[in-house]
Amino acid sequence: MKILRLLLILFLVINFSKVLAGRNKVTKIKITEFPPTDRINHHYVSNQPPLQPNPLIKLPVGQIEPRGWLLSQLQLMRDGFTGRLPEISKFLKEDSGWLTLKGRGWEEMPYWLKGYGDLAYLLKDQKMIATTKKWIEAILNSQQPDGYFGPVDNQATNDLWPNMVALFCLQNYCEFSGDKNVLDFMSRYFRYELSLPEEKFLPGSWQKLRGGDNLESVYWLYNRTGEKWLLNLSQKIFRRTADWTSPILTSERDRNWEESSFYHGVNIAMGIREPGIYYQQAKDPKLLQAVERNYHQLMEAYGQQPGGMFGADENIRPGYNDPRQGAETCTMVEFMYSFESLLKITGNPVYADRCEEIAFNSLPASMTPDLKGLHYLTAANLIACDSSGEHDFQNAGTLVSYDPWSYRCCQHNVAFGWPYFAEHLWLATSDDGVAAVIYGPSMVTVKAGQSGKTVRLVEDTDYPFGERIVLTVYPEAPLDFPLYLRIPGWAEKAYLALNGEKSVEIKSPGKFIVLERIWKYGDQIFLTFDEPVRVKLWEGIGKAASVARGPLWYSLEIKEEWKRYGGTDDWPAYEVLPASPWNYALVLDPERMEKNIKLVTEKPVAYQPFSQQTAPIILEAKVRRLPTWQAERKMVGKVPASPVLSDQPEETIRLIPMGCARLRITCFPWVKGK
Prior knowledge:
Blueprint: H1 2-21, E1 27-32, E2 56-57, E3 64-66, H2 68-79, H3 97-100, H4 108-123, H5 126-141, H6 152-156, H7 161-177, H8 181-195, H9 205-209, H10 211-225, H11 229-240, H12 257-260, H13 265-271, H14 274-282, H15 285-302, E4 327-328, H16 329-346, H17 350-362, E5 377-378, H18 408-413, H19 417-423, E6 426-429, E7 434-436, E8 442-448, E9 453-461, E10 468-475, E11 479-486, E12 494-498, E13 504-506, E14 512-519, E15 523-529, E16 533-538, E17 544-549, E18 552-556, E19 560-567, E20 572-578, E21 584-588, E22 597-602, E23 617-625, E24 631-632, E25 635-636, E26 650-657, E27 670-672
Parallel strand pairs: 7-11, 21-27
Antiparallel strand pairs: 1-14, 2-6, 3-8, 4-5, 6-7, 8-9, 9-10, 10-15, 11-14, 12-13, 12-15, 16-17, 17-18, 18-26, 19-20, 21-23, 22-23, 23-26, 24-25
Helix pairs in contact: 2-4, 4-5, 4-7, 4-19, 7-8, 7-10, 8-10, 8-11, 10-11, 10-14, 13-16, 14-15, 16-17, 16-19
């Protein structure tokens, strides 16, 4: 099968190149699965021998400039609770253990700083950069003679987990500022880790499950210093980290505290990438296979829902796999980063698809449109964001109301979701090219080609709310380099045109288009994706139906009634309650499922497009009410197995993008119709 697949790809490449050879004699165009895996980029820090070369390489923070709706998300973050969190978080006051080195000082501050700092760098906000530096300098000044750093209480309990997060803050600060003191600091700290006896290194709890983050930082430093002893430390970290290479769901796992923590949603979202990180050193394909096996095992059991997430309302639990089971906001941003990390390691565009799905569909509704409040859990089917606690979740209390004061971990950790996403729009490639891997309005300045000359690329698009992407190339002088354009896995057809020529149809979803030419100032690429309406049936939850178009899933438009129940005037807490019916079944024609669903409205993209009032795209669908589908306390009932029967009259309802809907039904039962 592998040989046949390779022959098919070769056939497509040769024939597609021939199609365009007669049209543009200075451009070579081909289709590939990923950039080369046997080369090292000459202009940006990437894996050094003996590590496996990365096909895709992250650019230093600040080289990518978000624009359009993506820039507005960052600006809303700055003006919302991420940018102003020290006003309300007790963990970011002057008595923080990260400033005093005693008392309160665990994961919260570095969680927040990890995103806040990058937000400052992306926005070039000098006030925020100064605040970031205050905390960075506190971390750097906390190092002890033995190399340890941070609050001493953490060292007393032998807990290295908070430092793993702090290392990410230091790395991004170093990339942005060029401060080489970070390298010496990290080297001393990793010497400390290497000196710890095995039994005292990552002994248990979060640090044992999340050791992949520590491993990633070791490779970051190795690629900048070449200190070989770091590879001994990386082997030690892999030995001592929990086993994420084994099947993630198995009856053989012991259910003591350490093992049961595998089932915590955030741990899964982080740990799933760990075998892929170590693959860079071990070069064993079974490690990448383990990543994919665990992902598919997880999603088949608990991810039978749109939006890219899986049901873990603390832990994944047998019998709790309906789309009303929520996902933590922490889990969303960590799952996104796992895919961003694996994308660079493997070059496989499927990881960009998975990252986009969460970012465009699940993450936005975890927060209020002004980004001044969030909730702990977001679900694909959610009919009340209330404070009553009357939901069948693992934890008690309010978990779905919007509150800037509560939800301790998510309140801080959500900060890095959008900034890291923006930093992975463009990546350098191993063959000294540039790749547009995650789409969004932006501009990037990058060194490319053998000469390493600078080129600026501008991406004009409303994606994911529009199907057209226009890329304009501005090299400082004519420059020969490969430009990679990802074709999303959902895009059965794409249309490519260069400098106003007639477009060519491409049918290669889940691959890269590679354009090789001597680029001239003002060259333009027009890339358009075909976005028909699609209906997905979820076999694991009774063939419930979900509607998609392009990268967006669509939810029932439920009228939202916002009620303040607490907080302050500056930082209010809200419930969002339903003010219209929700228990509908789609009317679907089994011969052509999408027949009764149509696009009715496309509006200009607003400053904040992820709200019910500003939804840029609206679909209409035929439905029947299903009176037997009722709420269970404040929680939506489980989706009835389909097809269902209903004697109610046929109606037309509106569907809006999932990320615009705080209340939503996104997995529907359905009745047979014509």
